[in-house]
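Hi C.,

You asked whether I'd gotten around to modeling the 287-residue construct. I have! Everything is below, sequence then structure, no commentary in between.
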Amino acid sequence: MLIRIGLVCMRLVQLLPWRMVAWLGYGLGMAFYRLGRERRRVARTNFRRCFPELDDVARERLVRAHFRAFGRSVLERGILWWGNPARLRKYVQVSGLDNIPANRPVIILAPHFLGLDVAWSRLTLERHFASVYAEQKNETFDAVLLKGRSRFNDPLLISRLDGLRGIVKALKSGVPFYYLPDLDYGPRDAIFVPFFGVPAATITGLSRLARLAGAAVVPCVTRQLPGGRYSVTLLPAWEDFPTGDIEADTRRQNDFIEQQTRTMPEQYYWLHKRFKTRPEGEPRFYD
């Protein structure tokens, strides 16, 4: 029932000017901050591990800023799922589309910045893309999410259960693949490489997919901007990637994400337990 009510509210709120939706989202984020004790603890742990040079006051300021940005991203999904496409074109500026090679498979490396769904919706307005889709536990939310992410240009959404086979097939057919490989999915297919100086279990899929499909890797960085606006930047394809060293490739991925995160530390997805999986014998961070 709560999910249904939330979806109705999102659909109604998206009728407001985007600037107002953003401000309401900031308020929603602060409600999450006050009520979400567990997620607040996770965010504080992540910031403490990743920004040890900051004092407690500065880190708590970032935690609050993160919750505000997160609340905004939640409420803005109503615009993505039901809003006028002209609003997306107006408020979400895309640059670097010409960095997508036309003559080979392409992986769009999309780190978990809070605007990742905005980027997906905006990019699919321009052309046909593929990505992975994980079925949600709530059937109502699952149906709305799937429909919302499929609005433009009939994107190819591949079930996570299909593994690499479906992704490689899409890549080799010429469909750019929007890839988000930077969460802690557990020890399977993962190695420990540094992220903000902390060993982080990181799947090696980016290197393996690029090698299997002969794909170029084009990084995508999405930023929340004031006034309800966003920027989506597609950077030039990485040179000399992949190499024959999967660990070096995976380090390069994490180094890139860290560099971009440091320019907007409140906008990375810190509510996730990024360091949940620990090397053998190392104590857990979130207990």
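If it helps when you're writing up: The longest strand covers residues 216-224.

Thanks,
B.
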